[in-house]
């Protein structure tokens, strides 16, 4: 029987956005940033938490609508992006649910892009990114007859405020220059005390950008399409501290991007990725996780690999 650290209070990663630069229409998203035990409550109960992420990603493909590389001599992108997240978990309500809120910032500490044309087609800048504000409700844990966890769940609504650095003449920016609404439902299901699976299912709506990137010509506004995306994991608890498993993510844009209020076909984004992951709980107040991802079948997006480090600490 496992000790409490990896029982229903084994949340490792919470609600941070993916530290991913964007050169296409959609903003940076949580694509694989959250992973094992994603639907679980805060590991040490109510209180304040700090979560730090560091994402290193590298892409060698800028793909078109058919998944083919763009016609550029070189297509190399390297990003180092730190994410800081502050989480407050409130006291349980009468029914056992725990409310809370979060603040998240993902910035670009380093970003370099090469197009083989002296960066005439692709350019980038580092800097401070957008800020996301969220409110969540951690639902009561559903247990089996022996008291072991069976299902943990959380719902959250996130709003991204466009305060990040943005230059319409750069193809990759820390900020998106438009508002986004990104609610989600997360759950972890235990097959046994050792085996479990987690999923976070997200919807994305984007506001208008009244300073569209220069690549749109003389357009006065653009609006990125809506999208669905999910993070999925299968994890096995080796012991009360260490878990190993597979993590993955999936993204599909479901409506067209609009330019000056008119839908433009052929720009919908799509990608999926899979890779190994691990989590180590030093105690309930300090948890480390490392996840790797290898992207596949990207359309209208970059395609590459990423490595995500995460540290969760309770004050």
From TrEMBL:
The keyword Signal applies. It comes from Pseudomonas palleroniana. InterPro entries: FApF. Keywords: Signal. Residues 1-23 form the signal peptide. This is Phenol degradation protein meta. The keyword Signal applies.
């Amino acid at each position: 029987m496992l000790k409490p650290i990896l029982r229903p209070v084994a949340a490792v990663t919470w609600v941070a956005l993916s530290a991913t630069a964007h050169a296409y229409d959609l903003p940076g998203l949580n694509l694989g940033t959250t992973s094992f035990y994603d639907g679980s409550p805060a590991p040490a109960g109510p209180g304040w938490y700090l979560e730090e992420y560091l994402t290193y990603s590298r892409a060698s493909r800028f793909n078109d609508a058919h998944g083919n590389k763009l016609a550029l001599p070189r297509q190399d992108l390297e990003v180092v992006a730190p994410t800081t997240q502050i989480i407050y978990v409130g006291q349980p309500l009468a029914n056992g649910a725990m409310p809370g809120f979060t603040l998240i910032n993902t910035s670009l500490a380093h970003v370099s892009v090469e197009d083989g044309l002296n960066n005439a087609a692709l350019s980038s800048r580092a800097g401070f990114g957008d800020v996301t504000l969220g409110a969540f409700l951690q639902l009561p844990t559903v247990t089996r007859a022996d008291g072991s966890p069976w299902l943990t769940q959380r719902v959250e609504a996130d709003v991204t405020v466009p305060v990040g650095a943005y230059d319409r003449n750069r193809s990759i920016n820390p900020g998106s220059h438009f508002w986004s609404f990104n609610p989600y439902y997360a759950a972890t299901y235990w097959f046994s005390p050792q085996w479990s699976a987690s999923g976070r299912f997200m919807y994305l709506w984007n506001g208008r950008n009244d300073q569209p990137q220069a690549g749109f010509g003389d357009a006065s506004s653009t609006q990125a399409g809506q999208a669905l995306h999910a993070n999925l994991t299968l994890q096995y608890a080796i012991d009360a501290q260490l878990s190993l498993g597979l993590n993955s993510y999936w993204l599909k844009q479901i409506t067209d991007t609009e330019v000056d209020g008119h839908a433009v076909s052929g720009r919908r984004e799509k990608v999926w990725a899979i890779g190994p992951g691990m989590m180590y709980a030093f105690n309930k107040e300090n948890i480390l996780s490392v996840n790797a991802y290898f992207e596949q079948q990207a359309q209208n997006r970059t395609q590459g690999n990423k490595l995500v480090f995460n540290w969760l600490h309770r004050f």
